Amino acid sequence: MSIKKKVTYSLAALAVLAGIGVSGRLWMVMDSSRSDVADNKTVLADFHSTDAAAIKRGEYVMRLSDCAACHEQTFAGGYKINTPFGELKTSNITPDRETGIGGMTEHDFYNAVRLGRGSKGFLYPAMPYTAYAKLSDRDMHDLWAWMSTLKPVKNNIDENGGMNFPYNIRLAMAGWNLLFFDNSGFKPESLKTASGSSADWDEINRGKYLVDGPAHCSVCHTARNALGGEISSQYLQGGNLGDWYAPDITPNAHTGIGGWSSEQIQQYLKTGSDGKSVAAGPMAEAVEHSMQYFNDADLKAVAAYLQHLPASDTPAPKAFVMDEARSKKAALGYEVDCSACHGVKGEGIHGMVPAFAGNGSMLNDPTNMINALLNGARAPHTADRQTAAGMPSFDWKMNDQQMADMLNYVRNSWGNQAAEVTPQQVAAMRKQTDAKQKLATPAQQQ
């Protein structure tokens, strides 16, 4: 066993012991949460809200919080989430008494969503209660009203059956929470750091509430430590999601969104594209199920808050100079396989296919580009962009070296400069995602 694995397992074991030692105190802290305003008698299966306004607001809170992306369109769960510690499945959150949350009271619901304490014990932070802790009482109450309108669905889910030992022990989350979970509510930034009018500052704090609370942006866009805790010093500066990478969304001009206008940020969140970049993977799901439903004021508020943040100090990537023969071969391969969609000069198709020329978002961590080239990708389907363009997989057509050369070519052409993508990186992603190997030619098959 490697030293890294030994350290990780040792820390996990300590977390379990910590969980056992502090579980009583932590449960008590959870029960003294802000949920004292919630009903603790009527269970969801017996509750049917008649407050039309609250139900409508609650549906919007559901969209802000992106519940549908993970719990499926019926909210009966079963969506698989791969983590470094094993596979999780999302829970059934319909009002079914036996397999859903029909037996929960509003108080129970508050504790599950904001404190990570579910009907089966502690929840895993893949359910972003670490961010939902910031949700206001009104948003929670409205969400509860909307939940009462869902159709009960019987679907028994073993949420943590695919987690590796000792991470499949829910009690370990008590220790994790003690180390990494701040269960305090939303705190607006101080006016002392404000610039501009008070109206602008109100907008920035609305954006902060959305980013840190329901939209839970830091859950993906912030790097994590060996036990899955967010590294606060790297807030929104990019995080690895296993098969995907959530990029830096601070105003860094090289690795973040420093070159984006407010309008471009809003357009990207609403449609999945700013004209050059196109969302894929988990971000495409977030746009499709959540962000396209944000109202214009909230989109503007999110953009204002992100632009208000300090930029990360990540430097611009250095260019990789490829061997001339390999570069010419990669250029020919690009013309044959890629130029029909991405353009002869890397110009892409506006709003549908990513541009390579002048697209800084593709010049940093290459995880997303490797994944897309191996396995294909799909843009989000939104009301404003009905044609969700798809990219085919090329795992069967290119070997690891050919893919690395192709990516190095596009990442260092048309004025771009980026670090080298190695065949070893491609091989690791091919194995990680169970992508196919390149098909042998007839001559190689003989």
Number of strands: 9
Q: What number is the mean pLDDT?
A: 88
Number of helical stretches of at least 4 residues: 18
Overall form: globular
Can you summarize this structure?
With 446 residues, the protein is mostly helical.
Structural summary, described in words:
With 446 residues, the protein is mostly helical. It contains 18 helices and 9 strands. Helix 10 packs across helix 12, helix 13 packs across helix 16 and helix 15 crosses helix 17. The longest helix is centred in the first third of the chain and has 29 residues.
Index terms:
446 residues, 18 helices, mainly alpha
Q: Mind sketching the topology for me?
A:
Layout lengths: L2 H29 L20 H14 L1 H5 L8 E4 L2 E4 L16 H10 L1 E2 L2 E2 L6 H4 L4 H11 L14 E2 L8 H9 L17 H15 L5 H4 L17 E2 L4 E2 L15 H10 L9 H9 L6 H13 L15 H14 L1 H4 L24 H9 L1 E2 L11 E2 L8 H12 L11 H10 L9 H4 L1
